[in-house]
Amino acid sequence: MSEIDFEKLAEIELQKDEAEHAIMEERKTSFTPTADEDTELSINHPYYDVARHGIVQLAGDDNSGRKVITFSCCLMPPSHQLNHSRLLEYLKYTLDQYVENDYTLVYFHYGLNSRNKPSLNWLQSAYKEFDRKYDENLQCKQKGRPPPSVKIPPPRPPLPTQQFAVSLQYLKDKNKGQLIPPVMKQTVCYLKSKGLQVEGLFRRSASIQTIKEVQKLYNQGKPVNFDDYGDIHIPAVILKTFLRELPQPLLTFESYDQILGITSVESSLRVMHCKQVIQGLPEHNFVVLKYLICFLHMVSQESIYNKMTGSNLACVFGLNLIWPPKGASSLSALMPLNLFTELLIDFYSKIFSSRTVPGEILP
Fold first, then answer.
1. Is residue 23 one of the residues assigned to a domain?
2. β-bridge mates for residue 71, sequence order
3. What is the pTM of this model?
4. From 332's CA, which of 39, 99, 157, 178 has a CA 20 to 30 Å away?
5. CA nearest 292: which of 134, 203, 206, 181?
6. Percent residues over pLDDT 70 in the chain
7. Contact 293, 317 (CB under 8 A)
8. Are 228 and 128 contained in the same domain?
């Protein structure tokens, strides 16, 4: 299939998504995703964008051999990082799989916390949806008909102008070989000129609807002028969202275990350990990471005004730079991930100085 055909297909799929999204909004019903049993999540999975968060996991069997699904509110990312229409689609897709395999019961366990309280209607509606699917399956079996087949949608090709949820290589190829992705370059430049002394930079939220609107503009190749929105936190959230939606983390899956090992390294050797990990990154990842950390180092230098020290910035960016290949980072992983990120920011010059790449630019 030619590139033109792929572009047409991508545009058609985008129109379908928007139409389906409008229908979902009218129904005002939300559901939760689940993870595939004993299957390593691939970036080619049709619902990778929602399944990768690992909010809902198949935990195993209970004493009666029934499947147990756990819901972890503490793993939920900010709402703007979840497409609720996709969650609904993924739920139906997963429930179809359970019904197809004649699992008799699914438990939904939910633990609410003060940081992130999802609507209880989500889980209640999800459970009702499962009961309905299971009843339909039983009726089909009693009538001698096979249960409905599971339809797996093919991965949707990205638009030629797509900026979010595509690889660094894709962005480079579509942007005339530029190493720094346009979204990152524009948000960093804007924040550098107007946001370095803003208190709580990167810690404040922004309108979810506005964030989605800005993402849509970028994905459609339309210009974005942050002055039009009058909120310095919008480009800050867009930058974090861009990092989190990369198919693979900027620090790469391969580095995950090395990064977790930072706490077992003697304190005096930790900066050197960080340097070794960074030196092992692919060239493109290294350039983009160096650009970002250089900027975050600038932000930390203005902490007397913005209150964002290297430690505070690390708490914000740690999970946006690295996550495990399967599922989400455990609570025990947060400390080493944040420590590693903090060292990158505080010792930027020492860690990144010994490696340069032709064509790289800094903020």
1. yes
2. 56, 110
3. 0.63
4. 39
5. 181
6. 57
7. no
8. no
